[in-house]
Amino acid sequence: MTETSVFAPRASTEQVEEGRLFTPKFDADGLITCVVTDAGSAEVLMVAHMSEQALAKTLTTGEAWFYSRSRQKLWKKGESSGHSQRVVEMRVDCDQDAVWLRVEQIGAGACHTGRASCFYRAVPLRQADFRRLILEFRNAEKVFDPAEVYGEKDKAPRK
Amino acid sequence: MTETSVFAPRASTEQVEEGRLFTPKFDADGLITCVVTDAGSAEVLMVAHMSEQALAKTLTTGEAWFYSRSRQKLWKKGESSGHSQRVVEMRVDCDQDAVWLRVEQIGAGACHTGRASCFYRAVPLRQADFRRLILEFRNAEKVFDPAEVYGEKDKAPRK
Fold this sequence. Notes:
2 copies of one chain form a homodimer. Chain A has 159 residues and is of the alpha+beta class. Chain A is built from 3 helices and 8 strands, in the order H-E-E-H-E-E-E-E-E-E-H. Helix content of chain A is 13%, strand content 28%. In chain A, the strands form 3 sheets. The first copy, chain A, has a 4-stranded mixed β-sheet, with helices on one face. In chain A, strands 3-4 form a two-stranded antiparallel ribbon. A two-stranded antiparallel ribbon of chain A has the order 7-8. The longest helix of chain A has 10 residues, at 52-61. Chain A is globular and about 45 Å long. The two termini of chain A are 27 Å apart. Strand 7 of chain A pairs antiparallel with strand 5 (85-92) of chain B, so a sheet runs across the interface.
């Protein structure tokens, strides 16, 4: 991702952290982590990964594109569901190895299970038995029917 | 991370997505992505990674522990700075390969550069020249002096 990158090359730590040039760092698999929050509610909607191409397409179009590790392909959020995400703001973190999208969620929900957010379960703290940690559903009501949106037979996560 | 995991083994997609058992998925490096937001402001503070041990320590203590990929070691948030994070809530996403911590940030800020959040720069959208994308500083005022907190000579990111 270095010599052939479409983005500016990374320089010193000082420049990466305090500079004004966007120099995203992709990991060994060529991906950068992306957090997506709802620009209105500030709820975390999902965490996904972007390849260089996904990041470039997001920047160009103002709509969220990602790279699916399971399907090993570039995908546009909402390409199956119609539930796309319009980017209100993109931020980058100090060492420029993660991006944060504040989005306007188009359509009912961000999660392929039918919920508004992918984070619809809480993990209990301070429980002794890690093999029996019982999740608690929170804000988990379905806002759309995934069987209707994706089709009954297609169970592959596509968010 | 499968047979020796301290957490429950993963079963069907249906159980992972709709079930009540916590079955976190670690990647090939044994890590899970973690998003940290401020429980008060809902601002995204940072993105980091947890090893199985870091996740277990976070669950047990109610304070945020991570795994540093650059330093290749377990670390407690605030071990150098004193700026620890008390977990108000932990959530897990649909496929259980990312966790979201809502925290009370103890001390001035979450970012090792001295800011409240690591995401203090915005990336401009719809610019043609990807090699010259000029970041815009947002909420970037320093809330503590990193030289004072970490020492002048130690420039390694430790957040």
